[in-house]
Design a protein that fits this description.
Elements lengths: L1 E5 L4 H10 L5 E5 L17 E4 L7 H9 L4 E4 L9 H7 L2 E3 L6 H17 L1 H9 L17 E5 L3 H12 L3 E5 L5 H7 L1 E3 L2 H7 L2 E4 L13 H4 L6 E5 L8 H9 L3 E6 L21 H8 L3 E3 L8 H17 L13
The structure holds 1,4-dihydronicotinamide adenine dinucleotide (NAI).
Length: 332
């Protein structure tokens, strides 16, 4: 029997995890709060912890987990910027993730955000419900014929690029590790980073957060975007400097911004704050702009993705002791 301390639990997590684990070899301890150095003591008695994107596994947290008997960190997500992998190796903790669960879920959400923002469907929905059938202020643009810049052509970026090709857009891409054969087949053109910024009407981010990509879009690089450009970020909030983004929205330089992730989302996203005063002034400001659309890190939230996350995570949890984690899952 493997005791698993499960953090940042939402109702859908329990449903999909319990459905995926039929052997009864895992004993779940579901916690609704996040795992941090302050809450690490609650994992006492567990051999594994199961965490998501906003749990923070820094060195003190990992040391506390190990001291309490934990031997395995199972990330139920793809990104792993919230785990200090060097520290995990040093203290002797195995770390696994779900390398790909549904790249379609994330790419489709990115496109959905753009369509909604550009055609102002969210505003039209509210108007019509109040019997306001006016079209004033709802003008958008055709995607066909525009240029889309895809930054990061891994699993998600490639699908996003292919969907955008289907709209009849020109797709430019930037990735330090390009996939030239794929690009030829899909009629996607790789260019360098300054070029993708300067030539895109729509820029969409599909790269991991690392020390090198932290605030990839900042005052300097945002200034290189075309006037009126739209920016979509479904990857990680810290890829964009929010202060600089707000300046480029206030000046009218950017045409629109769609975010599924936000630089300081930890402790805000995934929770209901509707009865409290939001303390994050930049998020409050962004939410007030008519040309900004924000969702709360939900790009992964499809039946297919949740099913696959549960399947891979439980397989990795059951493999502890045998060490045969699923191929591509092991990070440390
Ligand atoms: P992947 O690992 O398949 O692809 C990432 C690509 O980014 C690689 O081709 C890599 O070479 C490229 N890259 C690395 N550094 C770069 C740079 N400086 N500039 C441009 N490209 C760079 O990852 P995948 O599965 O496509 O996921 C991408 C990101 O999406 C994840 O790292 C994660 O942060 C985010 N994500 C967000 C979700 C959500 O619910 N909003 C769900 C799943 C992933």
């Amino acid at each position: 029997m493997n005791n698993v301390a499960f953090y940042d639990t939402k109702p859908y997590d329990r449903v999909y995890m319990e459905r995926a684990e039929r052997s009864n070899e895992l004993r779940w301890q579901f916690h609704e709060f996040r795992l941090t150095r302050e809450t690490a003591g609650t994992a006492g008695g567990a051999q594994s912890v199961c965490v998501f994107v906003n749990d923070r596994l820094d060195r003190p947290c990992l040391e506390a987990l190990h001291a309490g008997g934990v031997r395995h960190i199972a990330l139920r997500c793809a990104g792993f910027n919230n785990v200090d992998l060097d520290a995990a190796r040093a203290v002797g903790l195995a770390v696994t993730r779900v390398p790909a669960y549904s790249p379609h879920a994330v790419a489709e959400h990115a496109v959905g955000l753009l369509l909604t923002l550009n055609r102002k469907i969210h505003r039209a929905y509210n108007r019509v419900r109040e019997h306001n059938f006016s079209l004033a202020g709802l003008v958008g643009f055709d995607l066909c014929g525009k240029t889309v810049g895809v930054v990061g052509t891994g699993k998600i970026g490639r699908i996003a690029a292919q969907i955008f090709r289907g709209f009849g857009t020109t797709v430019l891409a930037y990735d330090p590790f390009p996939a030239p054969e794929w690009a030829t087949v899909q009629q996607v053109t790789y260019v360098d980073f300054p070029d993708v910024l300067a030539r895109s009407d729509i820029l969409t981010l599909h790269l991991p957060l690392t020390p090198e990509t932290h605030q990839l879009l900042n005052e300097r690089t945002l200034a290189m975007l075309k006037p009126g450009a739209f920016v979509i970020n479904t990857s990680r909030g810290k890829l964009i400097d929010s202060t600089a983004l707000i300046q480029h929205l206030k000046s009218g330089h950017l045409g629109g911004v769609a975010l599924d992730v936000y630089e300081e989302e930890e402790g805000i996203f995934f929770e209901d704050h509707s009865s409290t005063v939001l303390q994050d002034d930049e998020l409050t400001l962004l939410l007030s702009f008519p040309n900004v659309l924000i969702t709360s890190h939900q790009a992964f939230l499809t039946q297919e993705a949740l099913g696959e996350i549960a399947r891979v995570t439980t397989a990795n949890l059951l493999a502890l002791g045998r060490g045969d984690f699923l191929p591509g899952s092991r990070l440390a």
